[in-house]
Amino acid sequence: MKIIYRHIIFLWLGLISSCSFGQTASLNGKVTDNGEPIPLTNVVLKGTEIGAATDIDGLFELANVEPGDYVLLVTSLGYQSYQTKISLSANESKTINIQLDASAQSLDETVVTGTLKPVSRLESPVPVEVYSPNFLKKNPTASVFDALQNVNGVRPQINCNVCNTGDIHINGLEGPYTLVLIDGMPIVSGLGTVYGLTGIPNSLIEQIEIVKGPASSLYGSEAVGGLINIITKNALSAPEFFADGFATSWGEYNLDVGSKIEIGQKTDLLLGVNYFNYDIPVDNNGDNFTDLTLQDRISIFQKWNFERSDNRLFSLAGRFFYEDRWGGEMQWTPEYRGGDEIYGESIYTRRWEVLGKYQLPLEEKLLLSFSYNDHNQNSVYGDTEYLADQRIGFAQLTWDKIAGNHDLLFGSAIRYNYYDDNTPATTEADNIWIPSLFAQDEYSFAPKHSFLVGLRYDYDQRHGNILTPRAAYKWKVSNNDIFRVNAGTGFRVVNLFTEEHAALTGAREVIIAEELKPERSVNVNINYLKKIYSDNGTFIGLDASAFHTRFSNVILPDYETDPNQIIYDNLDGKSVSQGVSANLDIAFPSSFKIMVGATWQDVSSTENGVTQQQILTESITATWNLSYTFHSLKLTADYTGNLYGPMRLPLLGDLDPRQEYSPTWSIQNIQFTYKGLNNFEVYGGIKNLLDWTPNRGNPFIIARANDPFDKEVTFDSSGNAVATPNNPYALTFDPAYVYGPNQGIRGFFGLRYTVF
């Protein structure tokens, strides 16, 4: 009988035990950043020892959790912490997907642009600004060119009211002073500068690095004012598939589509296609000219990544770009192309490029980089035809070596330039080989101090030997305080018509006063970086700089000596760009982020004792981004904007009634992004909230828009326009008076789909 009782007791205890174990719950889910999984994220239930780390796919699971109410805490380096209340019932298996927001303290990224080798941004002796694809998404645009309007000290400049072509200004310097690179390759220059920032899908961009100040000691000609390096993703960080499309109320349509394709066991292909279309002429300012050029553009990008032993690098990328754009009188159609009946500016652009990197199979770290591009442009500006071909080949071998306290880099490069056009500036085609040697040494002479010195030698058969030295000093006061000083020189060989669309458009005669000499510059930049971590989890980052650049032999267009001419020659004097700039990033624990930047600059030229502000250069600029995420609604709001101070503008004479200086103007945008659907993001908002356009306060923007071929203009014996009843201001047709976009307020709506 006792035995029977014992069995009953054990059975009862077993039932109780099994029931108690059956009362536990589990929690699982995925942690992502805009759909991209975040591995090694800490997921814990506060106040308990229950926790886990996400795997490579961002997945986690917490098992055998007692039923009850908890606070789930999710933390990952580089992201704002996330927490939410969780209620778990007995036998429940709950799934939760968590979206983390990147913190403002993005100061530990790996950067390569400043020194031609990968280093932590904090350890780089050269200040490098880094912008991620998430930054681009806060104000979605059809190209990186337009997206840079929200970068402090960087301004997309529209150079022509009709064709809307433009370039990038850094710290007030003209676009030709900015070198654009793709994956570190300087394949974009001269004729193709603006096209290097167009047509690469944002989802294939790993990051954008910007260096302000001369970098000619590493990159040669054109890196005089600064450089922009677009770094594309590799196979590990790219999505399996993505699609991102948006449309605006003006009738603009943009689509990015791409995929990662495995080919065999050791090869991955990244494929991306960008298509943009706008074909609805708009004339809101009533001058009978299109406010925005009509465009039909396609770009196909592919990048091959090959797996090799010892993780050695081998990648090969290529891109094809085609664009058909036109602007002009509202009645223009292609049948009027090149004629003098109805004015239009029509540009057909075809471009292809290839670039690659191959690490040699040696114990020493030697990297071979190479690129080649072919750019063809067939364009007409009214009845002026401009036909141009440019081909650039580039090969570079670098040796990265650490010897004690010395971080050494040695390199040799060869560059091939071919350029030909039908303008008076090119009597015969350029066919130039430029060999180069360079070396740099970063010497850590104390635990917190390092000094970098570099020198580049180029031989240009047109101008002989060219030396460009540079030096940099870094004092790491602490992990949260870094002080840098950089000094360097730069040079630039000019292809005038590839860089000055004002020389092609309008009725002015182009005068080249003399054989143009290479421009040279000397620059000094002081930078201070400060990080502050408060006890309540708030992060503050301050990045401030002061800069001074002095140019000699600078080439500037003279619009004022003769209103009917644009005169190009080397300045017999000096040109100076100087100022101060600061960026402030604040991230609050409440998911509220602030990014604010401001720059004051003085860009002037002095000749014959007279100093003038450079034309089309702003005195002040400011940018901002205010972002807040409503986690319960899975909704993020972004308010972005910029502000530009007065610019001196090119007038046509004393009678010209247009303003000599632009007002201080601002373009502001708001966007809402919903992330509550698996793999989807829905976004929409309003661009140019203030509906600002440059015709405000001006009687007109384009001079003589009613007579673009100057058929009704009367000229005196010297060729100067004379005031008449139908031309009271003695003007000729000129669309060069432009300092901002003519596109007013518009709504937009878009959808993103991403699979990792």
Automatic annotation (TrEMBL):
Domain TonB-dependent receptor-like beta-barrel per the UniProt entry, residue ranges: 267-689
Subcellular location: Cell outer membrane
Domain of life: Bacteria
RNA-binding found in the keyword field: no
Keywords: Cell outer membrane, Membrane, Receptor, Signal, TonB box, Transmembrane, Transmembrane beta strand, Transport
Stated family: Belongs to the TonB-dependent receptor family.
Membrane topology recorded in Swiss-Prot or TrEMBL: Multi-pass membrane protein
Signal peptide positions on this chain: 1-22
Protein name per UniProt: TonB-dependent receptor
Record-annotated TonB-dependent receptor plug domain positions: 122-226
